């Protein structure tokens, strides 16, 4: 018998797979995993069909089709007045996760340390560990999930190689302010530290707030990767298409890794997105109001329930506090209780921590759903 030693021995099945399977088994309403239950724009679907008919069915350039890279550059120009070179500074990836993974593999070495903020997306820590580096977990301050900058200052050492930022933040919906970015700049400006900014929910931000990208700060321009997602923006999470933006120097080392993790993205999908973005700029400009209506519908629908909440500032997730209902249950147990007894499925927030606070009583719902789905969800939650 051969011996097999896992590189991630503690890694089991993700909570998303567990809760989705539970929803299917119990025929429960699934507001756990982050995907819409409404269709993508018809013109986008037709653009995909047309791209296949037009012959865009073979390998694309490894770094992505140029028309789509040009559209990404236009986004940054319009929003941040930032001029990007589509050829040397933008890479199209098959989803954001592989972009995050490639950036970590490109910069982080064995023995390095990487600061991440908990609760955090579940791919960060494993990607760091696979290089032989150490994730340094810093818990955000509930209930607003702000950063304790004194704690960040104390966590930075000579081994710190990267800080991973996620704004708007999954799973809490918090967003970074200008002062947050300035605080980070002050701490790392004279150090050999790279920023990896996960901005996949960049267009889903509410109440008149503005998304601030890492690249909008000149002090971070030369030391930052920014990763985005077309799936979140265009309601096509299954198309698994994202992007990475960085300076030519950083992008060079990114591509050295990326080329061996994936040869290229899906060609007709890239062409469809490029054509749709060029013809329908109003889609992105209307996203915030579209999803804010969903958030407000969900939040107002459970306003008279026993759940408590702080309105999400971004993403398409809303956390709710159930401490007035079943404080005796931890959040994993509460999610199972809701699924089994009330036929509605959420995600426990504790799974996004290395070590969650003992008194954490938060669960996450996705409001990227049809109006009737959200109304049904509110009806169920009001009876809990």
TrEMBL record:
Pfam families: Aminotran_1_2 (PF00155). Signal peptide: none annotated. Its cofactor is pyridoxal 5'-phosphate. GO terms for cellular component: cytoplasm. CDD domains: AAT_like (cd00609). Keywords: Aminotransferase, Pyridoxal phosphate, Transferase. It comes from the Bacteria. Residues 29-379 form the Aminotransferase class I/classII large domain. InterPro entries: Aminotransferase_I/II_large (IPR004839), Kynurenine-oxoglutarate_AT (IPR051326), PyrdxlP-dep_Trfase (IPR015424), PyrdxlP-dep_Trfase_major (IPR015421), PyrdxlP-dep_Trfase_small (IPR015422). SUPFAM superfamilies: PLP-dependent transferases. The keyword Metal-binding does not apply. GO terms for molecular function: kynurenine-oxoglutarate transaminase activity; pyridoxal phosphate binding. Belongs to the class-I pyridoxal-phosphate-dependent aminotransferase family. This is Aminotransferase class I/II-fold pyridoxal phosphate-dependent enzyme.
């Amino acid at each position: 018998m051969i011996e097999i030693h896992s590189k991630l021995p503690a890694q089991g099945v993700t909570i998303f797979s567990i809760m989705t399977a539970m929803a299917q088994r119990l025929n429960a309403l699934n507001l756990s995993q982050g995907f819409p239950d409404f269709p993508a724009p018809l013109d986008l679907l037709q653009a995909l069909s047309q791209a296949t008919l037009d012959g865009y069915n073979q390998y694309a350039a490894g770094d992505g089709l140029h028309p789509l890279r040009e559209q990404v550059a236009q986004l940054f120009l319009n929003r941040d007045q930032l001029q990007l070179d589509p050829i040397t500074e933008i890479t199209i990836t098959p989803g954001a996760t592989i972009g995050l993974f490639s950036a970590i593999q490109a910069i982080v070495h064995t023995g390095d340390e990487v600061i991440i903020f908990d609760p955090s997306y579940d791919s960060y820590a494993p990607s760091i560990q696979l290089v032989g580096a150490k994730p340094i977990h810093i818990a955000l301050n509930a209930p607003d999930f702000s950063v304790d900058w004194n704690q960040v200052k104390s966590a930075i050492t000579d081994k710190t190689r990267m800080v991973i930022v996620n704004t708007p933040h999954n799973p809490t919906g918090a967003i970074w302010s200008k002062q947050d970015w300035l605080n980070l700049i002050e701490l790392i400006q004279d150090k050999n530290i790279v920023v990896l900014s996960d901005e996949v929910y960049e267009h889903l931000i509410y109440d008149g707030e503005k998304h601030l990208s890492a690249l909008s700060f000149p002090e971070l321009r030369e030391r930052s990767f920014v990763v985005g997602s077309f799936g979140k923006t265009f309601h096509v999470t299954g198309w698994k298409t994202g992007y990475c933006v960085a300076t030519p120097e950083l992008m060079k080392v990114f591509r050295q890794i990326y080329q061996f993790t994936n040869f290229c993205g899906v060609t007709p999908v890239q062409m469809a997105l490029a054509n749709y973005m060029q013809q329908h700029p109003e889609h992105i400009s209307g996203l915030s109001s579209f999803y804010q209506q969903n958030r407000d519908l969900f939040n107002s629908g459970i306003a008279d329930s026993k759940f408590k909440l702080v309105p999400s500032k971004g993403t398409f997730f809303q956390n709710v506090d159930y401490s007035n209902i079943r404080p005796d249950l931890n959040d994993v147990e509460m999610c199972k209780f809701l699924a089994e007894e009330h036929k509605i499925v959420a995600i426990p927030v504790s799974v996004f921590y290395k070590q969650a606070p003992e008194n954490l009583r938060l669960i996450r719902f996705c409001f990227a759903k049809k109006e009737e789905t959200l109304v049904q969800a509110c009806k169920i939650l009001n009876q809990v």
